[in-house]
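Problem 12. The chain below contains 368 residues. Write out its predicted structure in token notation.
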Amino acid sequence: MMVEANCVRFNSLLLDNGATLAPVDVAYETYGELNAQRNNAILILHAFSGDAHAAGISHDGGKPGWWDNCIGPGKAFDTSRYFIICSNILGGCRGTTGPPSLNPATGCPYAMSFPVITIADMVRLQTMLIDWFGIERLLAVSGGSMGGMQALEWAVAYPERVVSAIPIACTTRHSAQQIAFNEVGRQAIMADPDWNNGDYYGSKPPARGLAVARMIGHITYMSDDSMREKFGRRLRGKQTFGFDFDVDFEVESYLRYRGSEFVNRFDANSYLYITKAMDYFDLSNRQGSLATAFAATQARFLVISFSSDWLYPSYQSQEIVRALRTRNRDVAYVELPSNYGHDAFLVDVAEQTDLIRGFLASTFDKVQ
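Solution.
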């Protein structure tokens, strides 16, 4: 199916740091139809480098959505039954207000004058979009990685508006290791001379720094098994070492390609702001404890992790489950076997689809 991005503008948004953004644009796509009862809406929440184009074929560019294998007729998020909404996050660079957006006070891009944002700010803007649709309660909120963090924030901050939540391969707060990887990526960008303290719009962007940041990140998305299977120690287009610092191995070529590809579609300043928002996210610290954070939740939960995910390991999902069970919440948990590492939620979808399809069907039956 061909889909087209849309955009809605809101007058203002108050942020956690006390600043106000005005106005605020939100880019979004929808799939399926909202029923007369307005009780079949599902909000899909994208991961760090995602955008509003979650499914279908883009009218602008002809590319499939980042979760097209999970959203559509008969898929995990069945568009013949449900109305799916996906919006680009606050701070992003794909249509929603972020550092590349024009600051109306200056007529220039915000760049580093953009206020520091949080996951809660992102979700607060999403609630305004859901209000704009005239939807009081969401049948489900779901996403993987940072999308899972947003799903948890929705369930905690707006318990009366969420019937069910499906956080996948995520956490309630970053570990020191997760913060460390994000910081290395940020430093790679800021060390690039072309970053120019974030003021690179209209000139040469910090492509080298952003590419290195993406290369680092991409390593964390894969598992040792998947990298060994995909690349091993195979050489790239040669029979022996070049004895220089050009590409020798297939994995080197792949990472360079991923880095250069990312530069063409993502903004370096957005990288800084979004990773910082992820690092700030901490449900347990904000609420006193994780169990306390979940005390007011009303949603059913399906929590999914993957056996080979070392970036967001299963123990972090299990912490979510234990805290929910101390509050006697309706929660199911599955660790799925996979060799794909953190990327499994995007590519290894067969068992995930069966779980989500069944969970949503039983949830929808309860609200009919």
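Discussion. The chain has a mean pLDDT of 96. Students who got a different answer should revisit the alignment rule from Section 12.3.
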